[in-house]
Each structure stands twice: as structure tokens, then as C-alpha cells.
Amino acid sequence: MLDLLTAQSATESANILTLIYVILLSFVLSTILAYVYQLTFRGLSYSRNFVQSVILISIIAAMVIQSVGDSLARGIGIMAAMAIIRFRTNFKDPRDTLFLFAGLANGISCGAYAFGVALVGTFGFSIAAIVLHYSPLGPNAYFDGMLRFNMAAASDDRSAMERILTKYCRVFSLITLREVEQGNRIDYAYHVKLRRGLFHHDLLNELGKLTSVQGIHVLMQEATVDL
């Protein structure tokens, strides 16, 4: 069936069954991309909306390619219409952009009846993403969340604070260090990975006992929660 459909061109009179097949295949392949993204995601801001966007943009791309067909006039018209839309979403991780482009390329391939390209490209991209994730090139330290607090600049509690972090965290890494309140206080932000059997609320209670520590916030990573 793939061979027969691949031999077709994107004409204006595409069969309705072929159109359904195009949309379904783009949906299935982009869903695979979304699952791979979820499997290999490491960060503190997982977004279900982004995962759904990877799937939906593939279907949109397939629809656009089917609408254009072999008509140059249609292509120019659609390009002019799409130019009106302004995409102002900023992606902090370049990897997110790559997955969005992968979904877009999948939809374009399906819409152009290049099903072999769509299949091989999707599975090739997915396998490469998984291999890189578990290879030495992948992330070498996973953190449970981000801890933020501020402390008086002239405080003697710094050594006690570091002892508490060492007690409760297997790994902690300083992300930002900045002055607040005109230099009277120092704001700290750490990536933390808790020791097994210890909980973040115990860490917060210990830090709260230090008189100079204020504004304690913790942002824990949950794979199923939107932040």
C-alpha cells in the first residue's frame, strides 16, 4: 500500500481515503516523537502543551501540503496567509525546537506522500535521540529540583547551610548567586538531588531553623506535572 501511495503526487483530487491515511500516519508518527521526547526529557519545566504541539503541528503541516498540491498559486497564497501569523514562543532548550521541527518534517513528508521518508526519518530521529540520551553525551547528573533562598551577606550561617545541603543532598550545584536588598542579602539558587529516603520538606525545615535564611522556595521535578 505504501508503494502505491508513494507513486501518487499531491494533486487537487486526492482520494478521501488517502487523505485520511495521510492524517492518521502523521498523527501516529508524531505521537511516537512525543513519547520519545517524554522518555528522554530531563528538566524542571515539562509541558504537556508542548508535547501536544509536536503532534498537532504534524497534522497541520500535512494539511497545508495537501492543500497546496501542485498549484504554485496556492503555495504562494498559503505562504502569504501564514506570514500573517507571528510565533513568539521562546524555547529555552534547543532540543525542544528540534522535536518541533521533527514533527513539522513528519507532517510535510506525509502530506507530500513521501511515506518512506516519514517512517525512516521518524524512527531514525527517535532512535538517535534515545541513544544520545543514554550515551556519554547525554546528561550525566539528574536533579530532583531547584532550591532557592536568601541569606544575610554578613551571616555566619553559611557553613551550617552547606552542612545541611551535604546532609540531605547527594548532589547539589549552585546555579545563580546574586545580591539583593542593595547587597545586604545574597540570593542562592541550587540544583539539588536528595539522598535516598530523605524528603524535601525535611530539608526545608532544617534550613528554616537558620535565623539568617529567608524566602525558601523549592521547585521539585515531576515528570507528569506542568510547571
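[next item in queue]
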Amino acid sequence: MKRGFGSDNHSGFSPDVLEALIRANDSHALAYGDDSVTARLENLIKETFGSQASIYMVFNGTGANVLCIDAMCRSHEAVVCAETAHINVDECGAPQRIVGCRLLTVDTPDGKLTPELVKTRLHGFGFEHHSQPKAISISQPTELGTLYTCEEIKSLADLAHSYNMYLHVDGARLANAAVALDCTFKEMTTDLGVDALSFGGTKNGLIMGESCVLLNPDLDKDMLYRRKQMTQLGSKMRFMSAQMECYLESGIWRRNAEHSNRMAQLLKTEVEKVKGVKIMYPVQVNSVFVQLPREVWKHLQEFYFFYDWDEDKDVVRWMCSFDTTEEDIMNFVAALVEIIEERPR
């Protein structure tokens, strides 16, 4: 498959990760997380996010999101999220089916919730006929590639806590947000009052390595059993933990995210030179959303794989990865220009 701009899930994995897996493949180890690698990771997570943090490794991002929601909500409760949130659009109703809770969605212009928007869904408390709002969930960065500032996250955490609710962050691309904002993971989550975090690495150089990180110790109740019931307990967990340990210790999270963000900026710069292409949202991490004529992007898809984001409005998404090269981008833009120039005048 030609390297395209469809998803940062399409790339391979960092060589450092393979070396970590080889080291973890030494002799036998106890299963289900009772191994020395997972024990080291648990300590590393406390160093990274604070002494109260706990981690539960899972197989995928949906598992991380659902496990976090399950820690926060019961089936009669609800989660407020953006209409474009991954938990609403791309998880096939998993939170609703597995947790049983309701999603209260909010339309946003840029994928970001604000306290004012969230408050439109905060009603019906104590009324037995209504699902009870219990959590706010945001993606950092959002599904549109936009970023919450630390101040914006804190305002949402403060709002949630004032209503006896929790704040969850879907951090599948948290590394890209951290380098863009030039802050640590802890400064962007724990220090702002985030209660639960879906912390991922698959999109940034791991083979698999998603996790539910609980930052509020009050939520860490019966999680061993809840993860097992959700079929997210890996028997040879040391191989999942080894990747996440390598991710944090070696600094590949930062190097990879810095590179993919930088490639997105280069793509934006080159695309801005092309007549007839409109960039739809601020390019703040590793994604570029553009609007262009349908016949152009349909033709371009014959050579490069990428997703249409909003086909009705002819908006497509181009994602850069940790292994995207400048040559990849220049060749892609050259193909785009050629298609546009060949269009009938």
C-alpha cells in the first residue's frame, strides 16, 4: 500500500517499540498484568500523571473510552460530548451498549465544547424520567484537529465538578496536543482537574497500546473486574505494557508527535499555494481538513488513500504520521496540482 494521508493508524511502528518487545520476550512471566514490566509501567504512570494515577491497559481506543465511561457512569446516567466526538461517531454505539448510558451530543463549530454549550444539556437533575448527566467527554485534540487550551480544559473540569460530574479526555492523540501546547501530560490533565483519560499510542508509533488512566482515585473501584467483563484484559499484558513503557521512557511520544505535527504544517503551507483548495479548520496538530471540488478529490483518491470527512460539503481529511516524509507531501501536492490543472476550464 502506498503511503497516503488516510490515517495515522495506517503507519507502522517505531523501531524502538520492536526492541522493547524483544526485551519483554525473555523467558516466562506471569499473565494478566502480574508481571514486572506492567509493574514498572504502573510506577511510570504515577511519575507521569501524579501519584494518584492508575492505569488499565486495553486492546484499543474504544476499549479505553468505554472503560473510562464505565468508571464514571451507571446505565441511568449520561455523557455530554460534541456531536463530532469519536465516542458518538466512530464507536458503533459501544458506550450505549456496554455501559448502557446515554450520550448527550452538542453541535459545535470547531469540535470544541465550552461551558456555555455544555450547560444546554445540564438539566433534569433529580427527575426520574431523564437520564442524569454525569460526565463531560472531550477529545484532545478534537476530531477536527483543533486544540483545547489548558484554561479551556480547566473551565470544563470546574463546570463538571460544580455539578458533581466528571471530566473525561479522549487522548488518542494526546502526544500531538502536548507538543503543540508545549506542556507535559500532567499539566494538561491532572493539574487541570481531569478525572479520567483515554491515553493512546497506536496512532503515534505503537503496535497496540491504549489505556484507561484514572486520575481521580474515587473512580478506581472494581476496575479489574470491569475491564475483564469488557473483554479488554490481555493475558500476555507484558507486551502491551512494554510498548507503553518504551513510549514514555524513550521519548518517542514526543519525537513522533513533533514530526507528524511538523509534516501537517508543511502540507498546509504547500496546499495554501494551490488555487481552489480551502483549509477548513486551524491546523494545530497532524491533520489538515480541506474543501475542494468533488471531481478533484475523487480523482486524487485514485492515487492516494484518504477519507472524505463531509461528502455533502466536499470536505476531506488528510492525516500525517510519524513516518510521513517531506517527499511524501511534495509528491501528494504535485498530484493534486496536476489534477486541478487538467480540469476543463
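[queue empty]
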